[in-house]
Amino acid sequence: MQKKILVVEDSPDTLELMTVLLELDGFKVVAAENGQVGIDLAKAESPHLIITDINMPLLNGTEMIKLLREIPDFKSTPILALTAYGKDWAGLALHAGGYRVLTMPVEYDLFRDYISSLLE
Q: Strand pairing partners for 30?
């Protein structure tokens, strides 16, 4: 069964790169450009994993994670948060309900390992 990953990222270039790499690894990718669209797509698509940037306009990743965790269907969905802003932002994402946080830029092999462990 093909696993579905929701990627929430406001940078079009980063979103496109992650989508292409994840699709090459055999995943079905659903892409959202901000946290509000991410919530809407999560409800519509029921992804196996959510990958989100933390710092985004409209609804940031931490706020999106908190809102998703209030929805019964997403209480245990693994969420991997990405940040370029260091440990303080990482702590906020974990406190909100994220499972893991990676600081960008990240090597794709490490990114892939995190995804594999979260989907097990």
A: 6
Handedness of CA 103, 104, 107, 108 (dihedral sign): positive
For 57, other C-beta atoms within 10 Å of its C-beta total 10
Distance CA(27)–CA(60), nearest Å, equals 24
Q: Which long-range contacts (CB under 8 A, 24 or more apart) does 16-19 make?
A: 18/51
Q: How confident is the model at residue 104 (pLDDT cuts 50, 70, 90)?
A: confident
One-letter amino acid identity for 49?
Answer: L
67: pLDDT strictly greater than 70: yes
Level-2 CATH architecture, domain 4-119: 3-Layer(aba) Sandwich (3.40)
Domain ranges for the chain, please list them. Answer: 4-119
Does position 31 have pLDDT exceeding 80, yes or no?
A: yes
Closest alpha carbon to 56 in 11, 104, 107, 112: 11
- Residue from 81, 39, 41 nearest 62 by CA: 81
